[in-house]
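Input for the complex:
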Amino acid sequence: MDVKTLCLGVLTERDLTGYEIKRHFEEAFCHFFVAGYGSIYPALADLTRRGLVSCTSVLQEKRPDKKVYSLTPAGREALIGELMSTPPRHKVRSEFLVLMVFAHLLPAAKIAQIADEMVAQWDELLASIDGCVAEDDGCLSPGMRFAVGYGRAVTGAARAYVADNKDRLIETIEKEAVAKDAAD
Amino acid sequence: MDVKTLCLGVLTERDLTGYEIKRHFEEAFCHFFVAGYGSIYPALADLTRRGLVSCTSVLQEKRPDKKVYSLTPAGREALIGELMSTPPRHKVRSEFLVLMVFAHLLPAAKIAQIADEMVAQWDELLASIDGCVAEDDGCLSPGMRFAVGYGRAVTGAARAYVADNKDRLIETIEKEAVAKDAAD
DNA sequence: AGTGATATATATCATTTTGATATAGAAACA
DNA sequence: TGTTTCTATATCAAAATGATATATATCACT
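Predicted:
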């Protein structure tokens, strides 16, 4: 599954421009899927070429033209086919955990700073997820509600683990550094 | 931070071939960083060119030559510099959650199958993480112990959430489908 | 003795994605 | 008045992905 499929997916709800698709990803999908202009615009161009979406240029008086994309019947079929044949995958790429793994190469203050920044980022994410839940008057699809609940549970667990264990990590590393100094 | 930095990092522990680096990633880093041959071999070539690792060809009698890579002093400095200047990031790309978000486009049986497959994958991952913990006689670095604990906590939370909520999701979707049929 | 599966080991490559940047008028704000 | 933010599209070098090719060796089965 690639960004093309995601674009088809969000277009099932309503017609959107590339810019709006990007915003939609940021608002609703940010904790489990990231896509930038560099993948969205080429995806839309390719989908148009293949007749899976149609594109209408909307002239605007005071702004550049909008290109509003709509899902075609062929696009809807392609989307369902793609969803049916996609094996469930879930990938994490954590530069934060890489930094923690090599923490013994860094000063203690830096490790503390890194962990605190990560916790702060997760706090922001949790606040935005709770915002989604608060706004929901039944307007969220059941699948999106499931994904939001997932985000809250798992991000909460991540935040709690790091907050609870960072001090132990830093202490252990400081002890080992002292032991190594004594050996020299 | 890219695969190059990770390669420098694992080479702080011992000299390794590209093949061994890949295996090391799979064994120890698999739940938070993935890298294939297509990124590791070019990374090692570039690091060699820049003098950050050195490469020794080891002739083997019954197998193709090994290229064993070692970290140079310049490579160690470059690694520390990179770690010090990398902001903590943590990115998830979940095709599984995308499938859940568009669950209303799929038959109930398919949703159940997808969720069960994801839970099974996470069970495997948890078993391999617990294997790491069981083997640990103090041989794990404190940072790696932190990362392993993180993996256990967060993967466990993810597995529990999906196992606990998939039936509710499927029921809701089936109800909505029935309501829609009645409206037609 | 043969078959298939798995392990060691390096490498390539088309396609995709990333992350940053360019362009440009409008609105909001200080 | 100047600065930032918003709307909107687009491009691009660098990086990563995921699959595949190439060889040899070993190991378990039949």
